[in-house]
Specification:
By secondary structure, the protein is α+β, with helices and mostly antiparallel strands. It has a single domain, classed as Pseudouridine synthase (2-Layer Sandwich). The protein contains four helices and twelve strands; from the N terminus they run E-E-H-E-E-H-E-E-E-E-E-E-H-E-E-H. The protein has helices spanning 31-39, 63-74, 146-153, 203-209; strands at residues 2-7, 11-16, 44-45, 54-60, 78-87, 95-99, 101-103, 109-111, 119-129, 132-139, 174-183, 186-191. Strands 1, 2, 3, 4, 5, 6, 9, 10, 11 and 12 form a ten-stranded mixed beta sheet that branches. A two-stranded antiparallel sheet has the order 7-8. Strand 11 and strand 12 (186-191) form a beta hairpin. The mean pLDDT is 95.
Length: 225
């Protein structure tokens, strides 16, 4: 369900498995409740991941620490980077995706042309194997299903994300790979490579990720919110 990657004075970092709910559902513990059960401690979530998404999650140890993280997130002080795979040729290979989001049918969301309160995502992509590209995604906002909707808007829904029109696969290929932030004057950065999914664990992924080992120093498009 999860692995503990780091325990710090004011927070803990875990690597969530794909297919695991964040909140408890249908009598089954979600990752937040399971972490509390396993450690015998109450933890305070400061962000979330969709059930289909694997990767890094932060939990604060105290309400005070949670408020500090909430401020960091609100001020874009926590940099999050995701790895995604998709079939086909995108409308553009790198750049910025922005627009308001609205609910659609079947629990889906859609990207609008309006920009009142936009979801903003920056990205790079590279060819992984014939017919499949890997994307490095950097969300600047935290909207529900934001990255999944952004990828679908490129005409390349995330592989395995059938809700947004992709083909079925052995998993939905979206992984929260890297977190970076400054807390109390100290720079923290955490990385977890995906370990679920046949395509994620191939050598080709490692070779591409090696090009992105310092994601904050990449030439991202200018930030506009």
């Amino acid at each position: 369900m999860y692995q503990i990657l780091a325990e710090e004075e004011s927070f803990i970092v875990v690597n969530k498995s794909a297919g695991v709910h964040f909140h408890s559902q249908s009598g089954n513990l979600g990752v937040a409740a399971q972490l509390a059960h396993d450690t015998g401690k109450k933890w305070y979530p400061v962000h979330r991941l969709d059930t289909v998404t694997s990767g890094l999650l932060l939990f604060a140890r105290t309400p005070e620490a949670a408020r500090v993280f909430s401020t960091l997130f609100a001020e874009h002080g926590v940099q999050k980077y995701y790895l995604a795979l998709a079939e086909g040729k995108p409308k553009k290979k790198q750049g910025r995706i922005a627009g308001d989001m609205a609910k659609a049918r079947r629990s889906r969301y859609k990207l609008l042309r309006s920009m009142e309160h936009p979801a903003v995502t920056q990205f790079f992509s590279r060819s992984l194997v014939p017919g499949i590209r890997m994307y490095l995604l950097k969300p600047l906002t935290g909207k529900t299903h934001q990255l999944r909707v952004a990828m679908a808007s490129l005409g390349t829904p995330i592989l395995g994300d059938t809700l947004y029109g992709a083909k079925e696969s052995d998993r939905t290929y979206l992984h929260a790979w890297h977190l970076e932030f400054v807390l109390a004057g100290r720079l923290y950065h955490f990385t977890a490579m995906p370990d679920q999914g046949e395509l994620y664990v191939g050598q080709e992924v490692n070779e591409l990720v090696a090009q992105w080992t310092s994601p904050s120093s990449l030439p991202w498009p200018e930030k506009h919110l």
